Amino acid sequence: MSNYRQVEKKTNSRGVDYQLARDISNNTFSVWRKCENYCRHAKGGIAVSWRYVDKNMTRDDAQVLFKRRSK
């Protein structure tokens, strides 16, 4: 299993949270999006999870994607 460390986190104009993370095990970067979905088992009815937009990128590629998504 991979270990991810948050490098940067921003919210875009629509209110969606994005996170730039670094995978410690193989030193690659990824961009993640916060998703909130209905779940009848969760308190308040909303289950929060982080889903990747793209993984296994170089830092420059991940930074470009992160900046584009978090405008």
How does this structure look, described?
This protein is an alpha+beta fold and 71 residues long. Helix content is 15%, strand content 54%. It has one helix and four strands, in the order ββββα. The chain has a four-stranded antiparallel beta sheet with strand order 1-2-3-4. β1 and β2 form a beta hairpin. The chain is flat, with a radius of gyration of 13 Å. The mean pLDDT is 94.
What are its keywords?
71 residues, 4 strands, alpha+beta, 1 helix
Secondary-structure blueprint of this entry?
Elements: E1 4-11, E2 17-23, E3 28-38, E4 46-57, H1 59-69
Antiparallel strand pairs: 1-2, 2-3, 3-4
Briefly characterize the structure.
This protein has 71 residues and is an alpha+beta fold. The protein is built from 1 helix and 4 strands.
Assembly status: single chain
Q: How many strands, what sense, and barrel or not for the largest sheet?
A: 4 strands, antiparallel
**Shape descriptor:** flat
Output the helix-strand order.
EEEEH
Helix count?
1
Return the structural class.
alpha+beta
User: Radius of gyration, rounded?
Assistant: 13 Å
Low-confidence stretches: none
Q: What fraction strand?
A: over 45%
Q: How far apart, in Å, are the first and last alpha carbons?
A: 31 Å
* Sequence of strands across the biggest β-sheet: 1-2-3-4
Count the E strands.
Answer: 4
